[in-house]
């Protein structure tokens, strides 16, 4: 875990009117990083991930992306066109991401994520399939950084395993991942560092072991 | 292929996948256009006018020796109003509650005065209050005008009878009393038999001049009755249903509904599907997203507007109706449809950005369409504030563009003016929609 950060939040915070969703946060994702984002519901995890992804603009501070770095993002609620099939969604976003061969990329991800290739509107897919499509779209455009918001919430054990294999492969290739999760086991297995948020404030940043101890000592409450 | 174009194609595909929604989007504005047409037709229907007979009108009346069947005559002259016979009390009641728009009263002695032919009998007219009273007044005046035309010939014939009596002499009646007139011809004969003194020759000259003058009385009387006559030379123009006004309004109304609702709903739907965040993080800017919606709204307006124009053109060709340039001006209409569709799409996108949710946006767009259309339909000369308001909305400019493009002999100045308005409004609404679209990210 060395080299220039791939993605950095420099005092990035977000307000919605008078409501502070996220107070200024400092965070850097380095090559090979696996960072877990922990915290209860409403802590600001999705806001921080959206800021890092560029889906939201920070009200204060900024988010810096190393030149040429591509970021894949899977929001907590699937983001895809319900009237398009899984293949059509993948092909459309592949074109938008600038994939050289969108049809090939879509076919590959359909197979990798075990998605149905039938021309069935994605709104009619099962919850698990919709989440897999949501994740597959995040892998379009050969991203170096993955931002995954509760990625395994609707996946069965085998699908979780396949997802983490892909994530680990990306990290091994010099990429980084930041994922939000409520599962300690998942955090322990797939993260090197943990960043914890509560009520929109960053309350912890450290190794998984330190986070374990802090949780045990109830320091984050 | 630009990224915005990819979104246009995506929206077109989504529309194709939603045949019910697409059908409603197409059929609803056409239905509204038809209903507005029906309402416009209804506004031209016959107003109900009460006829109060206080003179006990007989079945027939003889005026100047000509017999009139009262009911038949009333039917003939009341083509623009629906006359209903009512008692004076009922007529007043219905005038107050608006069931009749006017009361025409035939006062006692009307027929006697009419038959006397010495002075004009009077009909009493009461009008309802309100904006249509002037129109009702015109129609009642038209009714009396028609009645007068029926009576004019009898009056002229009677007056000419008196002229003939003065010319030729003989027996007749005046104000019901028998008269015996020597006449100018017999007077002249008598004078010729008299000694030709200076006075006699003066009288003979006067009689000669009077006979010449009276010989032209018939024509003069008719000319007095009709100083200006209308010569109907045959109907050559379009029927009102196919008029320039109807065609321009039908196209504008239809594309207004389609473009507004589509642009508003589809922009807000990007947020509903949670896709907007994915798009704006470097894939597609908010501006590109808004312009993609505007572009498809313009394309839809083009397709539907052309379909309506072609339908009108076919009907006009099949019916061999003259007037307008149904085919030659299609290219100009294409430009107008694109500009109007774009301006309306921009307004729709602004509504979608403000409403944020597809359902709310569609509802708001539907609620906004009709006021926009009605503001544009109200003549600015009648209600100036409506004219001012509609000036800053695309509908009025679209109607003017289409009307001029399809029907004016020299449309260029008007088309250029309206195109500039539509471009400016499209730019303003589009810019505001781009700013407002930030709300979709929240």
| Helix fraction of chain A by DSSP (H/I, runs of at least 4) | 25-40%
Provide mean pLDDT of chain B, rounded: 84
Largest sheet of chain A: 6 strands, mixed
Total beta strands of chain A: 9
CATH class division of the largest domain in chain A: Alpha Beta
Structural class of chain B: alpha/beta
What would you report as the Rg of chain B, rounded to the nearest angstrom? Answer: 34 Å
What string gives the helices and strands of chain A in order?
A: EEEHEEHHHEHEHEEH
The name of the CATH superfamily of the largest domain in chain A reads P-loop containing nucleotide triphosphate hydrolases
Q: Strand order, biggest sheet of chain A?
A: 5-6-7-3-8-9
Helix content of chain B: 55-70%
Largest sheet of chain B: 4 strands, mixed
CATH topology of the largest domain in chain A: Rossmann fold
**Taking all residues together, what is the mean pLDDT of chain A?**
93
Number of domains of chain A: 2
Q: Which structural class do the helices and strands of chain A define? A: alpha/beta
Residue share in β-strands of chain B: 5-15%
Give the beta-strand count of chain B: 8
Q: What would you call the shape of chain A?
A: globular
Q: What are the low-pLDDT stretches of chain A, counting only 5+ consecutive residues below 50? A: none
Number of helices in the DSSP assignment of chain A: 7
